[in-house]
Amino acid sequence: MAKYILSAFADEVTSVFEDQLKYVNKQGIGYIELRNLDGTNVSSLTIEDAKKYKALMDKYGVKASAIGSPIGKIDITADQTEHFELFMHTLDLADIFETKNIRMFSYFYPEGTDCHNYREQIMANLEKMLVEAEKRGINLCHENEARIYGEAPVDCEDIMKQFGGRMKSVLDMGNFAFCNQDPMEGYERLRDYIEYIHIKDAFNDGTIVPAGSGKGRIEKILSLYNDFTDREVILTLEPHLTTFSGLDKLSNMDDIKVQNAFETPEIAFDAGTQALRDILARIK
């Protein structure tokens, strides 16, 4: 039986980092996946600012479950020099925030082309980063997402098998549904490689909904994984139930349908959190 532990992308509630920490405290959530802190992406923080933010986290008793980095969200045909430097800096930040997990992606590719045309180059880039991460004892955790090499379950599995388990998976069932991919197939192909899980749900038309309300098969998959493993597993809440500061940097905004059916981002995140807790109560 898995021990599911909640974390959160609390920048969906507020861009003010101290208020993010206050929010997760109020919700009884002990972890946060770092993404945007006072309007700055985590990977762009200076070393000095990162140390100040870590001290603030210590003050509130909140730990970092992962660095929610943008690494790998760049066209594979672009010059990679500055992006690799950003990656190396992100490794330093992971050390400061005392987390072993960096969330990352597997590259955009030119529109209208086949992602497999760039497989060799993508795998070479990922290998280069893996070597550096392994020197530091840090896990690179690949998230499935639209318009990158690892969008379809079979290609995510290809990445995992290419590296023999050295690369980990961040399973995002809502992203599979959003991309009109089969979340159950995604789970079955990636089950052995899952490091942690993102919790959002969606319909195939891109409409984002509370966990358990869409096509992400969240309850079924969490139930299956609960029977599969007995380890601690982080579930990071990323409900996307309302428009929040920084969402435009995560999506083109024409590809998702945020319903904004809640009065405030906090109320929306409350609803997303409760939906997940209701699911966990049913499968325990």
What is the CATH superfamily? Divalent-metal-dependent TIM barrel enzymes
- Quick one: biggest sheet? 8 strands, parallel
Low-confidence stretches: none
CATH class call? Alpha Beta
What is the architecture at the second tier of CATH?
Alpha-Beta Barrel
Main attributes?
10 helices, eight-stranded parallel β-sheet, TIM Barrel, 284 residues, 12 strands, two-stranded antiparallel ribbon, alpha/beta
Question: Would you write up a description of this structure?
Answer:
- With 284 residues, the chain is of the alpha/beta class.
- It has a single domain (3-283), classed as TIM Barrel.
- 42% of the residues lie in helices and 18% in strands.
- It is built from ten helices and twelve strands.
- The strands form three sheets. An eight-stranded parallel sheet has the order 1-12-9-8-7-6-5-2.
- Helix 3 (81-97) links the parallel strand 5 (63-68) and strand 6.
- The longest helix is centred in the C-terminal third of the chain and has 19 residues, at 265-283.
- It is globular, with a radius of gyration of 18 Å.
- The termini are close together.
- The mean pLDDT is 94.
